[in-house]
Amino acid sequence: MKLKDVQNIELNILKYFIYVCEKYELRYYLAGGTLLGAIRHQGFIPWDDDIDVLMPRPDYDKLQTLASKINSERYLIASHELKNLNYPFCKLFDKTTVIKKVYDKDEFEQHLWIDIFPLDGLPSNEQEIKRIYQKSLFFRNQLNIQRSQDGKGKSKLKILLKPFLKRILLWFVGIPGAVEKIDKLAREFDFDKCEKVGGIVWGYGPQECMKKAEFLSAVKVQFEDIEVNAPGCWKKYLTALYGDYMQLPPPEKRVTHDMNAWIKD
After folding, report:
1. What is the model's pTM?
2. What's residue 258's pLDDT?
3. Three-class SS string for the chain?
């Protein structure tokens, strides 16, 4: 598929996800590059090939309990909790598609998807927030190395070192172990009792921390041909993540996932 074909399929997955959220009264918010695309381009960033959303942890957990009602002939919800994904977050797959990634391989990751990340509670202390994000990044690096494909890498050093590190981590940590460590870390603080929140399991860093009341005050923004939820503090959020977010990055930084995608026969 061409990039535009991939984007169209992912947009349809998002529409189905929003339908589910509205039906079961679940909160969601565009996040990361998808939110940036909505604000700067009123849709996908032209070279982007994925969709990211955040869900408050209580809604995210409820989503897991609804899996049997959400799954259909075309769509499949997958997560660590449901034992059909090796990530500490959800993916909603379109089963009519097939993908092949260049740098990592996972038995569960076979189709185009949108990413659904939990929005978790954070403490008030800035040093504690920094500690949480540092540990999350550490565990994520462990997970990514274990998921990597031998003989693939963006440098000769990575190609040489990854197989060695991968086998050590698989022996001492394991993929489920790394996922569980990230999940446990993200759940340290009760979402409902915290004044600050952020995407911890796959977050950008401490700069992503926002005041919960401001974040949860959803506003509607345009994304392609639909209106979707954005955090009320979207300007502060995008500035923290990207600086001058309306400025286009240089061409060498306009990258997509390293994968190929097809429609099933």
Report:
1. 0.92
2. 78
3. CCHHHHHHHHHHHHHHHHHHHHHHCCCCEECHHHHHHHHHHCCCCCCCCCCEEEEEHHHHHHHHHCHHHHCCCCEEEECCCCCCCCCCCEEEEECCEEEEECCECCCCCCCEEEEEEEEEEECCCHHHHHHHHHHHHHHHHHHHHHHECCCCCCCHHHHHHHHHHHHHHHHHCCHHHHHHHHHHHHCCCCHHHCCEEECCCCCCCHHHCEEHHHHHCCEEEEECCEEEEECCCHHHHHHHHHCCCCCCCCHHHCCCCCEEEEECC
Asked which of 106-110, 159-163, 196-200, 231-235 is least confident by mean pLDDT, the reply is 159-163
Tokens of 64: 């897991």
82 token code pair: 């449901």
